[in-house]
Amino acid sequence: MTLFFLIVFIAIIGYFSINIYLHDNTSFYKLTGYSYFDLLTKKKVRLTNKLVNAFDTTNGSQKVLVNLQVPSNGELHQIDVVLLHESGIYVINVKEMTGWINGREQDIHWTQLLHRNKSNLFDNPIHEAKRFKYALQDQLPDMNEELFDTLVIFTNDCAFQQIELHSEGTEVIKASDLKKWVNTLDGKRLSDTEIQSVYTALEGMMNVKDTTLKLKNSMA
After folding, report:
1. pTM, whole model, 2 decimals?
2. Which residues pair with 153 in a beta bridge?
3. What is the largest CA-CA distance in the chain?
4. What is the 3-state secondary structure (H, E, C) of the chain?
C-alpha cells in the first residue's frame, strides 16, 4: 500500500512538473508572468490565457498586450487586453461575473441579477472600455481614431438576459463566443511595421507579474 501511494505521489509531482515546464514556455507566461498555479486558481487569468491563445491563431498579423497601465487625466487606467491586429486596434475589457446580466449601452450602471431576487449594480463595462480606448488614443496620437474598437468579454459563469448596443465598433460577448468573434476579424488597416511600432510604444506600460521576466524580455 505504501508503494502504491508513493507511485501515485511521484506521478502527481511528475504531472505538475511537466505542466509547469510547458506553461513556462508559452507565449502567455512570457507575456504576463502569470504562473501555472495562477492559471489554476484564477478565472480571470484563465480567460486572459484563452484570449492570448485565441489571438495567437488569428489569421493576419497581430500582437497582444495585457494588463496595460495607461495614464490619463492624472490617473492610471488598467486595460486588461489590447489586440493589435492588421484589421485594427481592439481595447478589451474582461469582466468576471455570475448571474444574469442586463444593460444598455447608454446606461450608467448595469444590473447583475442573482438568486432569490438579489441584484447588484456595476459600472457600465462599455463606458469603461471607451474610457480605456480614449486613454490609449492619447498615447498614440498618430493613429487614426477609426482604427480603435472596444470589446467587453464576460466569463461563462454568467448569462445575458438583455443587452442593448447601438454603436459600431463596440461589442459585448461571452468567453464561449471568443473564437467566433476572432473569425470575424478581416481587412488590412495596419501594416506589420505599424503594429510593431504601436507595440513598442506600449509594451513598457504592461504590468507584468514577474518583473524579472519583464526585464529579461525587454533586454532580449
Report:
1. 0.84
2. 94, 173
3. 69
4. CHHHHHHHHHHHHHHHHHHHHHHCCCHHHHHHCCCHHHHHHCHHHHHHHHHHHHHHCCCCCEEEEEEEEEEECCEEEEEEEEEEECCEEEEEEEECCCEEEEEECCCCEEEEECHHHCEEEEECHHHHHHHHHHHHHHHCCCCCHHHEEEEEEECCCEEEEEEECCCCCEEEEEHHHHHHHHCCCCCCCCCHHHHHHHHHHHHHHECCCCHHHHHHHHHC
For residues 133-157, give the mean pLDDT: 94
Over residues 10-21, the pLDDT tens digits come to 777 877 788 787
A 10 A CB-CB count for 97 gives 16
**208, 218 in Cβ contact below 8 A?**
no
Region 21-43: mean pLDDT is 82
What is the chain's alpha carbon radius of gyration, rounded to the nearest angstrom? Answer: 20
How far apart are alpha carbons 86 and 61 in whole angstroms?
A: 6
User: Cβ neighbours of residue 184 under 8 Å, at least 6 residues apart?
Assistant: none
What span, in angstroms and rounded, lies between the C-alpha atoms of 17 and 14?
A: 5
pLDDT in tens, 40-61: 888 888 888 888 888 888 888 9
pLDDT at 163: 95
Question: Grid cell 506553461 — which residue?
Answer: 23
